[in-house]
Amino acid sequence: MADVFRALDDETRRLVLDQLASRDGQTLFEICSILAARHDVSLSRQAISQHLGVLEEAGLIRTERRGRSKYHYFTPAPLAEIARRWPIGQRTEP
What we know:
This protein is 56% helix and 13% strand. The protein is an alpha+beta fold. Strands 1-2 form a two-stranded antiparallel ribbon. A hairpin with a 2-residue loop joins β1 (61-66) and β2. α1 (2-8) runs antiparallel to α4. The longest helix is centred in the middle third of the chain and has 13 residues, at 45-57.
């Protein structure tokens, strides 16, 4: 679970997850273009690729190769695990 928190600790990675949550199956080129156009994030493709690697290691995204293209998909299961561990509900006063 520590790797999930580490992955979510970076604003760029959270923006990438936001993009994939809104439209799954994007390539590195698409992700870079959207980050630059909508969020003024001007990182190199290599830097974004490293961010994607951290997200994939944390289980927050999965990838699929088709030909020469690699598609990225949001995987919400690790976030659901966090919500199960610390559910939001009525708190009782001590």
